[in-house]
Amino acid sequence: MNAVKSRSYITVLLHLLLWMLFAFILLFYMPLTWSITVPPQFWIKQSFELALLIIIFYVNSYIFVPQLLMKNKSFLFLLIIVVLAALSSFLVKSLDDALNLPFLINQAFMKIGIPKLPKAGNKMDIFLIMMTFLVIGISTSVTLIQKWQANKQLQEALEKDRIGSELSFLKAQINPHFFFNTLNNIYALTHVDVEKSRNALHKLSRMMRYLLYDTQAGSTPLSKEVSFIVDYIELMKLRLNDTTKVTFEGPLINNDIQIAPMLFLPYIENAFKHGVSSTSSSVIAIELSMEEEILEMKVRNSVFNENAEIADNYGGIGLTNTKRRLDLLYPGKHTFSAGKTEDTNEFIVHLTLILDDTELYSGRR
């Protein structure tokens, strides 16, 4: 809000400076260069010119440019501008003659010994025509720039909304089936190990609290994101048997480091979705490392022949969405690769982020 007010004040100030410059040219420059005492009629005529230029500036800015030029009616726009310049010149020249200003100016020059005859028969003020075209050019340029800035701000707002929508989508991806199955597993666990089931419930409640409250802003501490990932992995392991080996390595975390929430989860979800077999041995390895301002993530999971085609596509539209989210949040500050290795028959996702003080788009709606 303060930034918007500042821009408004700057715009008003620039307009005032512009009209002060034109007022100086029209009202004071010529008397100073002529070195004569101008008659009162001169001020009437020049004030009329200034008022006319102001009217032309804003009529062009608010009517002609948006209604004609921006709607591809360029010929009509140019025609109206030419007619307007000619009409303005004619009106000012008529006022000039009505005030008998050429004769009065000539008298003022003669008083200081400089004879100056008034122009005769010329009904057009060439100087005013040039000033009119200059004002229209400035008005058109300013209006087009403001329109471009407004479109840019609208695009940024749409991107913010898009990021917020995608974050909501990602949160929804931790679907009710996950919570339902986890609760069933915890319920079954209560008959075997009460203490372990309590820990699982605590992890689940902590995850839900993170989803509901800590992901509403545009960024979250990396420590909370890692804690969420750890809880997610531990709860997913409740569904697995001994044939699947899951490992996680996390970095030593500075709590002040901020990151976009829910950034790594889609890749970890896909690893559990495609990297688990009920009959064959499988591996899911998740690594997070931090070196200075570079955050690196690697997710590696086994690929089986029966779901090789699924693994090749690996996430489909979901992967496309997450890559677009990276492009919006970290433009030019990330690298991403994903693919299946032929020698080890594994799928590997590799993501690096440059974390600095650049403000992220807010996901707040």
UniProtKB/TrEMBL annotation:
GO terms for molecular function: phosphorelay sensor kinase activity. The keyword Acyltransferase does not apply. GO terms for cellular component: membrane. The chain crosses the membrane at residues 12-30, 42-63, 75-92, 126-145. Residues 166-242 form the Signal transduction histidine kinase internal region domain. SUPFAM superfamilies: ATPase domain of HSP90 chaperone/DNA topoisomerase II/histidine kinase. Gene3D superfamilies: Histidine kinase-like ATPase, C-terminal domain. Keywords: Kinase, Membrane, Transferase, Transmembrane, Transmembrane helix. InterPro entries: Bact_2-comp_sensor_kinase (IPR050640), HATPase_C_sf (IPR036890), Sig_transdc_His_kin_internal (IPR010559). Pfam families: His_kinase. It comes from the Bacteria. The keyword Transmembrane helix applies. This is Histidine kinase.
